[in-house]
Amino acid sequence: KAGVTQTPRYLIKTRGQQVTLSCSPISGHRSVSWYQQTPGQGLQFLFEYFSETQRNKGNFPGRFSGRQFSNSRSEMNVSTLELGDSALYLCASSSTGRGTTDTQYFGPGTRLTVL
Amino acid sequence: AQKITQTQPGMFVQEKEAVTLDCTYDTSDPSYGLFWYKQPSSGEMIFLIYQGSYDQQNATEGRYSLNFQKARKSANLVISASQLGDSAMYFCAMRESDTGNQFYFGTGTSLTVIP
Fold this sequence. Notes:
The complex is a heterodimer of chains A (115) and B (115). Chain A is mainly β and 115 residues long. Helix content of chain A is 0%, strand content 52%. Chain A has strands at residues 5-7, 10-13, 19-24, 31-38, 42-50, 53-57, 64-68, 74-78, 87-94, 105-106, 110-114. The termini of chain A are far apart. By secondary structure, chain B is mainly beta. Chain A binds chain B through residues 31, 33, 35, 42-43, 45, 48, 50, 55-56, 58, 88, 90, 92, 94, 97-109, 111, and chain B through 31-33, 35, 37, 42-47, 50, 52-53, 91, 95-97, 99-108.
């Protein structure tokens, strides 16, 4: 079974631009979560989507948004980029996103650099 | 309060030796899951092992085992017979039953295996 894929792997943008990251979950998985990882803040939860609906959201400004398609693929968008948005963005998929045993499997991440 | 605490920023271990990575957690939810992930320099988070709060026995997966002490709220990862490829960041994570699919991550421990 193929793992979680994320595209692109690397991105360089300038302040003020917007960016869209893509994530394809493991086949059959319906829950997709997004995390931001920075050296200073560590891993922070952005949001989770299940069946095309945002089910859970972390403490990030409205510039960060996402969506999920009927095939469970997900995209996240960051508008009006700031230097502090430079980070590794990780996508994780799980089967149902419910119960304590449902493991999240991560993709390779997208490394975003904002200049 | 931090949900997950990893107090060892960096650890060194000799090849073929065993090493313990510490993790303590904080929750009032009686039902929760604990996870360990490995993150090599490439960035991808690799799932290693899972322990449920109601599991009576410590989880084991190959060379990985989890020393689960529920009363002390600790879930230490033990890696036996360390290999050079074990050099990576290791993250402890928790998921509670009543907070959706949000995983709480610790700050990680950087493990270096010395030949």
